[in-house]
Each structure stands twice: as structure tokens, then as C-alpha cells.
Amino acid sequence: MIVCTSCGTRLPQELLASGGPSPCGTCGAEIEVRIFPALFRPFPPGAPGEALIAEGDPGCFEHPRKKAVVPCAWCGRFLCALCDLEFHGEHVCPGCLERGRAKGRLTTLETQRTLFDRLALSLAILPMLLFYFTVITAPIALYMALRHWNSPGSLVSPGKARFVAAILISSLQIFGWAALLVFLLGRLRARV
Amino acid sequence: MPRRPRIYRRLPGRAPRMFGIERLFMGPDHLLLVRTQGYVESYSRFYYRDIQAILIRRTDRLLVGNVLYVLLITIVAILWAASESQAAKIFWGLQTALALALLGRHLALGRGCACTLRTPLQQVELTPLRRLRRARRALAVIRPLVDEAQGRLSSEEILAHAEDPVVTVAGPATSPAVVSVGPPRLIGHDSGRAHQLLAFLLLLDALTTSFQISIRNPFLNAWGSVLFLGELGAALGALVRQRNSDLGPGLRRFAWTSLAFLCVLVMGMMGAMVLAGVRAALTGSLASVPPRIEVFEVASLVGTLLLGITGLALVRRHRRPRPARSQPEAEASP
């Protein structure tokens, strides 16, 4: 059932089939709908797992009384229909999937990433507005860029360019501060 | 070091958020909605094989934006014309040019829309696609990929499937395709009384303002302030009442436009007061530089009169008995 996104009432079949913009029968909002076959695909019912009948039948690792139907493609454990999860064409167990997600090995299950490269670059650039802060922020930016060099960056704009820029800018700032310190010390010595 | 290939291609559009942005990307087998908030990116994936429908609903974004931008331009242009010093003229001239440029960009982006994507488990608004042209361009790119993953349906097939009671209408209660999206909202009848009250208050405000322009009286000013607060309350009340009601788009727009007009009016008057204060501080005397609120009084008179008359006409049209809808006939016909 497709409903109007403005008033929430069910859209007439003619509107769904037309494909072009048509007004909603209730609120008059102009809507165009593109329908795909997935809308009419029945949802596959979940399998509860068959109980063991014969003595020698292999049982599920998690549910020993259920009949194993497939081994896990990653750890090899026997899985019943209940434990069998299809993931990109492979049959895996929930434990493997959860471990892979927790360790960040499965990119397609990631829902969030921290952008350390942007953070390091911001730490290198933004404090330059108030130059004195760079004495603290430049080493932090450099440390962050080196520490997280291998951390996964943005999923949509990968690359190390921001890390490189952060390292260059923060190194220049550190070099500048060091040069200033040497210069001041030299002048102090000359006075003494 | 080998360069990592990009697997995502960016689709047109972006939606600014508080401290962040939302963008839409196209992957090999899914759409990726990326929300960047500060230094954290959050991802939502919509696999092409799971997309059930994409709905594009036209919105009044262009019209509302035009009204707001025109009001903004009018206000800054008035301030530009009213300013006497060279520095103020340059400042307000730049503001006017900026507002004009923003209006031009807004017009160039075209009509607004709300693009919604539906999967078996959720219905999500694709916020980066809030302009009709962009949404259609994105849809033209996405559609072949979804067709490739699922196949294509003709209009006849859609009609035949939609009439199939087993899958769609009376599907099993446990089917997530029916249950998870949530029950449709209940639409109640509304006579438009809140909108009528708002229209009456606007007309009363127009009458009061017409007196205020000719007669300067503190009691009249106080009455005008009370009326203004009443209008704000009535506009908010009308907005609450029109939710999940059968009120037409015209009356809905009327409530939103009234609220926007009142907000812009009060902001403009406050701006004029601040400007007068700044100028008084520069000249050293408050009495020598009175705030020029006559302009706003005239704008208020014209605006409230137009909105009040329009509102009453729309309420009247809404209450007129409507002919029976053609939908049941169409459903009844084979």
C-alpha cells in the first residue's frame, strides 16, 4: 500500500500506474510515483529450523536439537535454518557477522565513521586564525595525523590528501615556533 | 601506493543540516545516504533490489522562498534608500545585492519537492533531493540500476498487481511490507474555523493599522500589539489544526504565509529600531533620528488586508459542498 507523503492516505491505483504527476485525491498534493517489482514481492517467511530425526544427523552448533543445513562460510560451524544468515551470497553465522561488524571488517555493515583526517586538518588550519594556539594544536594535529594514518577515512571520499596536508601544515607551524624560540634564545644570550 | 578506486558516485543535491550536511551517493548495488555531522559520517544504505517505490511530491518551497526573499529584498532596499551616510548606503547596497543573488539562485534551482524512498522496512525522505529538477535527474540515473536489479513493470502489470488482494491489500498481518511502514494517518474533517479566525484577525489588524497611520495614540498602539500576538497565536493554532485534516493546499499555504509574513514584519521593525538606535548613537541624539516605521505600517496594512481577504475566500471555498470524488467510480470500473 503506497500512501501520500503529505496526508498519509492511500493513493489510488491509477496514480501508481500513471508514473506522471497526479494530484492526491484527499489533499490535492501533486505526486509522481515510480513503482518497482519489489513492492509486490512477497516477504520470505523465516524458517524455524527442523528438529533432529535420526541419531547420526548433524546438529546446529547453537541449537543442538535442530538439524544443520549449511556450514558457516567463515568459521565452519554447522548452522540450522534459524542461524543461517545470507550475507552477500555467503552463509554465515550471527557470531561471525557480529564479530566482523565490531572489528570494522565488513564495510557494508558500517553505519558510522569518524573522519580523523578532517579533524587533523581542522586542528592544523583553524587555530591559525588565533596564531598563538598553534603552539599547542600543531603537535596535536601532527600526532593525530600519524596516529590515525591507517584508520579508515570517509567511505565516499577516500584518500590521504587531508592527512598529508595536516602533517605539512602542522610541521611548518612546529618548525616556525622552533625557529622563533631559537631566535629569542640567541637574542637573550647576546644580551647576557 | 596504489590509488584506491572510488566506488561511490555522487548524485546531485545536498541538504544542509545544523553543523552538517546530507548527500546522496550511488554505489554498485545500493544507494548511500551520507549524513556528515561535524567529524562523523553516518551511512544509510538502500539496496537496489529492495527499493519498492520512489515518490516525488511537489512542495511550495519555490513560492515560499520567493515570498521570503522578496520581503527581505524589500526591507533591505528600503533601508538602503533610507540611509543617509555613504557607509550605510554601501552596507545596505551590498545586502540588497546579496539578497538579489540569493533570490536568483533560489529561482535557478527551480520547483521544490519532497522525494521519498520506500523499502520493505522503512520509508525515508531523501533530503538532498528537495528540488524537482534534481530529483528527476537523480531518478533518471537510479532507475536503470533498480530495473537491472529487479526487472521492470509496465502500467498494466502495476494495476494487475495492485488489484491482487493476496500480496498488497489483504496481505498477511505479519508481512513487514504492510506492517512496518505504519498505519496511514487518520484524516479528519476540519471546517477551517482556526483559519477563519486568523483571517478575521488579519483584517482587524489592517483596520487598526489604517487608523494608526493617521492617528497617533498609545492605546491604539497597545491594541495593535495585542492584536499582533493574537494573530501569531491564531496562525500557530491554524497550523496545528491543519495537520492530518482535509484542508486544501490553499488554506495550508495561507496559514504558513501568514506566519512567515508576521515573522518578517516583526524582524523588519526590529531591524529598523536597531538601525535607528545605531544612527542615534552616531549622531548623539535619539530624538533627531526616529525609527522609520511608517514604511512597515504601510507594508503591514497591505499584507494583512491581502492575506485576510484571501484567507476568508479560501475558507469559504473549503466550506462549499464539493462534488463526489471520481476515485470510487474509477475503482468500481473494471
Outline the structure in words.
Chain A is of the alpha+beta class and 192 residues long. Chain A has three domains: 1-43, no CATH class; 51-111, no CATH class; 116-191. Helix content of chain A is 36%, strand content 11%. Chain A contains five helices and seven strands. In chain A, the strands form three sheets. Chain A has a two-stranded antiparallel sheet with strand order 1-2. In chain A, strand 5 (85-87) and strand 6 form a beta hairpin. The radius of gyration of chain A is 30 Å and the shape is flat. In chain B, strands 1-2-3-4 form a four-stranded antiparallel β-sheet, covered by helices on one side. In chain B, strands 5-6-7 form a three-stranded antiparallel β-sheet, covered by helices on one side. Chain B is an alpha+beta fold. Chain B contains eleven helices and seven strands. Chain B has a domain at 60-110 and 190-318. The longest helix of chain B is centred in the C-terminal third of the chain and has 35 residues, at 249-283. Chain B has helices at residues 61-82, 86-109, 132-150, 155-163, 165-169, 176-179, 193-214, 218-242, 249-283, 294-319, 327-332, and strands at residues 9-17, 20-26, 30-37, 40-47, 53-59, 112-118, 123-125. The model of chain B is unreliable at 165-184 and 324-334 (pLDDT under 50). The chains are: A alpha+beta (192), B alpha+beta (334). At the A-B interface, helix 1, strand 2, strand 7 and helix 3 of A face strand 3, strand 4, strand 5, strand 6 and helix 3 of B. Strand 7 of chain A pairs antiparallel with strand 4 (40-47) of chain B, so a sheet runs across the interface.
User: Which descriptor suits the 3D outline of chain A?
Assistant: flat
Q: Tell me the span between the first and last alpha carbons of chain B.
A: 65 Å
Portion in strands of chain A: 5-15%
Structural class of chain A: alpha+beta
- Based on DSSP secondary structure assignment, what is the total number of beta strands of chain A? 7
Question: Are there runs of chain B of 5+ residues with pLDDT below 50, and where?
Answer: 165-184, 324-334
What does the oligomeric state look like here? Answer: heterodimer
Q: Give the strand order, joined by hyphens, for the main sheet of chain B.
A: 1-2-3-4
- The helical percent of chain B reads 55-70%
Largest contact between protein chains? Answer: A-B, 53 and 69 residues
How many individual domains of chain A? Answer: 3
| SSE ordering of chain A | HEEEEEEHEHHH
Tell me the Rg of chain A in angstroms: 30 Å
